[in-house]
Amino acid sequence: MKHSTRHIGSHGELIAKNWLRQKGFEIVEMNYHGPYGEIDIVAQKGGTLHFIEVKTRLSTQFGTPSESITRQKCLRIRKTVYRYLDEKKPSIKNFQIDFIGIQKGSDNKLLLTYLPSIT
Q1: CA distance 24 to 15
Q2: What is residue 114's three-state secondary structure?
Q3: Which of 22, 33, 44, 114 is deepest in the core (most CB within 10 A)?
Q4: pTM for this structure?
Q5: Is 50 exceeded by the pLDDT of residue 81?
């Protein structure tokens, strides 16, 4: 059964959201859209806002999830974060940009990788 890219991405974001909650993060917002792009998850833990890019891959045909984080992608994410901060004016000023990669393993189980502070 073939899944759409949107369905795969949404499922990965749900997995990431649940994992973050288990790790003590409070989910602030999902799928924030700005003129430069999208932030998949905005979460808070302690005194820091985390802007989280989530990439889900069911195969390595197009590379691993972490290989999708190019310099250009990081620049777009950073611009979108600054737009979010300007628009929403959160009381928390500390922030970081994180990455969660979800990939299907050879045993068909999904493997989650968390990379804090990617930019």
Answers
A1: 15
A2: strand
A3: 44
A4: 0.91
A5: yes
